[in-house]
Recover the amino acids of this structure.
């Protein structure tokens, strides 16, 4: 059997339906094998390895399956670094196959030679070189096991081309797969019964409890379990940015998003005033805690943490209780422990108080959500999007880049359909991910409309993938927030008092023209009625990709809802009143 056929047969065995990648000198034998297996596995060619990686990242985020992407040696490997780092740090299981120069060439000045195994070491859970074709099956099994078990993450296999060209005696190998590792989390773990009982006692005793649902809840698909626990004990729930979508935003117990970027004032207030907080699947990193300056009333000794990764336990606060385990399984067990006579009225005043603050926030936001300005305000854009999504009535997979979409989608997006999911890559927030991510989102589930949101800086980094979307006729909806600048950074310059900002402005792209030149259906929206009409058309158009070039106000013209920025300007970030916030 050829090494390449071993690799492809095993990928098929692991249920891999699609491999994202870019062709190169070294991966020809792999492509030959993929071609002979067509119909059982699909190759999706991207135009840049970074994009192939972000496709894989989105595929992993929107399924419970590990994603696979591949690239050629040298430059291809180096271009693959950013998405691998993002997936790994965001606990998304992704396996990168670098098809490398032949092993006998090592150290002899071969074009593109690079120690890829070492290159990927700090940004993966495992990065190894395959040194013998007979080891392929065992290493592939290890790759899936490592990527999907424990805290999921990225794995890199450096496969010298000659491993794929080699003949292997099938009698000497076994192509079996471990079924448990075809999905994640593989081998999910539970805490001890004592720990679970202690946690239930803490939750039941508290009068102002709060659950904070992090990205780990989305990774473990534990939204329904968080909801069930919250309902069973009548506990309000906040999410982190990456935990958005844990429960429908319309739910009485879904208070809002905590943290710095796009936070809800009432959600941050809840975190300060809760007497006991249960974090589920959150590192409690710098965004959630605003560089560990928030909440001002320390979380020490009023916090418990459920996490798959014991290494993050009590890393930043003095936990009352650390609960190591998979979010979904742990919460299921916890719900079963809830006392039959638990008095849910005890927490009702707290729930009511938070709901009053929440209602007040949304009332105060009405003028901004309906403001008719030129250029359009991002709040208005999100509001139009919310309405269009609701009218569309079908679920979507939304992926958003850094820049304008992040604070404004976090604050104003309303997720009502539990099937609709929202992802923001927050480990690095690399620009240029959302556009290619729509390809991965589409292959993750073709019954969900893929939607990508990005600024014009991001667009400039990923525009080449418009061709991929057209070639594959993917019905992605792309929302370009066009403001002719690296707005987030320009805002930072303004925050430091520089009105003459330096090296942040560029020429606004002619988004509609660019999209149309690629064969993408496109509209331009400067006013809200243009945007509403374009969104209606975009949702109705299902024959291929489309783009709306939205001309928006720059983040550098009005301070976005970012807690640390507002604090820096001397404003009270917890004030529940929508202010027209200019820089000084
Ligand atoms: C690859 C990469 N380079 C640089 C940054 C730093 N960065 C964060 S936001 C931002 C500006 C984004 O500009 P744009 O996409 O136009 O969105 P806007 O902020 O204008 O809405 C930059 C450069 C990054 N996140 N990723």
């Amino acid at each position: 059997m050829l090494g390449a056929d071993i690799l492809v047969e095993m990928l098929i065995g692991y249920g891999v339906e699609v491999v994202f990648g870019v062709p190169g000198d070294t991966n020809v034998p792999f492509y030959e094998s993929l071609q002979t297996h067509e119909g059982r596995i699909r190759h999706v060619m991207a135009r840049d390895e970074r994009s192939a990686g972000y496709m894989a990242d989105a595929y992993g985020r929107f399924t419970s399956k590990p994603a696979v992407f591949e690239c050629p040696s040298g430059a291809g490997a180096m271009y693959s670094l950013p998405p691998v780092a993002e997936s790994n740090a965001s606990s998304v299981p992704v396996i990168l196959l670098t098809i490398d120069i032949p092993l006998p060439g090592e150290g002899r000045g071969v074009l593109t030679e690079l120690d890829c195994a070492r290159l990927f070491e700090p940004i993966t859970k495992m990065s190894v070189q395959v040194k013998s074709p007979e080891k392929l099956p065992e290493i592939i099994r290890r790759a899936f096991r490592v990527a999907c078990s424990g805290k999921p993450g990225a794995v890199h296999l450096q496969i010298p081309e000659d491993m794929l060209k080699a003949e292997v005696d099938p009698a000497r190998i076994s192509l079996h797969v471990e079924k448990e590792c075809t999905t994640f989390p593989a081998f999910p773990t539970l805490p001890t019964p004592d720990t679970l009982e202690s946690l239930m006692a803490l939750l039941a005793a508290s009068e102002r409890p709060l659950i904070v649902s992090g990205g780990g809840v989305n990774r473990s698909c534990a939204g329904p379990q968080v909801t069930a626990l919250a309902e069973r004990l009548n506990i309000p729930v906040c999410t982190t940015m990456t935990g958005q979508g844990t429960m429908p935003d319309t739910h009485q117990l879904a208070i809002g998003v905590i943290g710095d970027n796009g936070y809800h004032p009432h959600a941050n207030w809840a975190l300060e005033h809760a007497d006991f907080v249960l974090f589920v699947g959150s590192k409690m990193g710098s965004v959630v805690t605003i560089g560990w300056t928030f909440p001002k009333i320390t979380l020490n000794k009023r916090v418990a943490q459920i996490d798959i990764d014991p290494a993050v336990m009590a890393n930043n606060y003095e936990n009352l209780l650390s609960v190591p385990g998979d979010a979904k399984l742990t919460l299921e067990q916890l719900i079963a422990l809830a006392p039959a006579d638990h008095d849910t009225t005890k927490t009702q005043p707290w729930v009511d108080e938070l709901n009053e603050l929440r209602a007040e926030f949304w009332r105060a936001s009405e003028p901004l959500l309906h403001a008719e300005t030129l250029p359009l305000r991002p709040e208005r854009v999100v509001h139009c999007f919310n309405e269009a999504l609701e009218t569309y009535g079908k679920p979507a997979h939304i992926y958003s880049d850094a820049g304008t979409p992040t604070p404004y989608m976090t604050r104003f997006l309303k997720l009502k359909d539990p099937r609709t999911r929202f992802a923001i890559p927050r480990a690095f927030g690399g620009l240029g991910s959302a556009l290619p991510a729509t390809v991965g989102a589409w292959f993750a589930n073709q019954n969900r409309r893929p939607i990508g949101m990005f600024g014009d800086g991001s667009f400039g980094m990923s525009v080449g993938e418009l061709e991929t979307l057209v070639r594959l006729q993917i019905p992605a909806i792309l929302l370009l927030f066009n403001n002719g600048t690296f707005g987030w950074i320009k805002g930072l310059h303004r925050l430091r008092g520089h009105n003459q900002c330096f090296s942040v402005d560029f020429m606004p792209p002619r988004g509609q023209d660019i999209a149309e030149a690629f064969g993408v259906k496109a509209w331009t929206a400067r006013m809200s009625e243009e945007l509403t009409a374009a969104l209606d058309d975009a949702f109705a158009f299902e024959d291929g990709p489309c783009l709306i070039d939205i001309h928006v106000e720059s983040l550098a013209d009005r301070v976005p809802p970012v807690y640390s920025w507002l604090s820096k300007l001397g404003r009270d970030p917890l004030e529940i009143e929508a202010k027209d916030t200019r820089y000084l």
User: Anything to note?
Assistant: Residues 402-404, 429-431, 455-458, 481, 483, 485-489, 555 surround thiamine diphosphate (CB under 6 Å).
